[in-house]
Amino acid sequence: MINKGNNPKFSNEVIAQVVTDNVTRRMKLGRYFTKNEIKEDSDFYTYFAQTINIEEAMEKGQLGEIKPVAPGVSLQELNVRKPIDKTVSINAVGGVLNINQNMLDKNIISVADMLKDVSALIRNSLEKQLASILFGSSNIVEFDNTAGEPVDDFIISAQEFFKEKIGDYLDMNLALVNYKTITAIKRLFKANNIQVEPYEEIKSYFYNDNIDVIGTATSDGGARIPELAYVAYDYRDAPVKLLYSRTPGTTTAPVGIEGNDFQPVIEILRKIINDELPKYTKIYIQSRVGFLEETNKKAIRGVIRQS
Predict the structure, then answer these.
(1) How far apart are CA 305 and CA 307, in angstroms?
(2) Is residue 292 one of the residues assigned to a domain?
């Protein structure tokens, strides 16, 4: 039971913590992309971006070449690209709960269930927007399994393609698929390995929905990823960042999860209505988030296996 002092009441901090924890727990795709908090309250975020891939710029001679400089000689002037500024809108996701005061004071179980429902709605909205970018962006290179290779062989082929198209400075070390594709990979690995290893010894492969295929982690990104599809990228240089902004005067969760860099910022504001019957409380719950799509060609996507 959640208590505040001797009274079974929800404080703003508790409400924010409950919603934040539940949204975080429910996120599947979003947990693979870094959260970046904008300290100033703003409806927009302006950033500078390059318009072409750095590998392409070097191949085309647009950056020139840095050469050794002899002692006493001035450093050369570099021909670098001029970035352009872009703007990301920061939008509110959430809503308002109107809760009877008696329920808020005495029936905390029902209120907790309502907060879980709100958490599910916020999580669903965040995941839906993120998936629309990953599978709708023209900046992500397509690479399908047209040869019909087994899943593990195709992941290796995708790694090679990623190196050739994206550049030597990036490695494809994370591939996100949905749970059905993860199941297919598990069955493939089980069929291949059970011939040489006792089943009990390979069960540890399947404790987590995360399988390593020659240096690339293939992870369950959730049902938002289309069946048979995948998206893959270098998690050190992800194609999308989640930008969160706080609104002055709101309450956020006081406790964070150590090492968690994707936990969303959930804001709470309470307004008590005493001049109506029955008396009730309006609880405003929102997350102000924008999706920053980084410079192009930092990811690949496509069909991972044929039906």
Answers:
(1) 7
(2) no
Question: Alpha carbon 210 to chain centroid distance?
Answer: 16
Longest dimension (CA), the chain: 84
pLDDT digits (tens, 9 = 90+) for 244-258: 999 999 999 998 766
Q: Torsion angle of alpha carbons 153, 155, 157, 158, nearest 10°?
A: 170
In terms of domains, do 42 and 169 share one? no
Residue 271 lies in a domain: yes
Q: What is the DSSP string of 156-173?
A: HHHHHHHHHHH-TT----
Residues 180, 163: Cα–Cα separation, whole Å: 27
Q: Does 73 map to a domain?
A: no
Calpha distance 126→19 (Å, rounded): 14
Domain count, the chain: 2
Quote the percentage of the chain above a pLDDT of 90. 40
Tell me the per-residue pLDDT of 118-160, one tens digit each, with 9 for 90 and over: 999 999 999 999 999 999 988 899 999 999 998 888 999 999 9
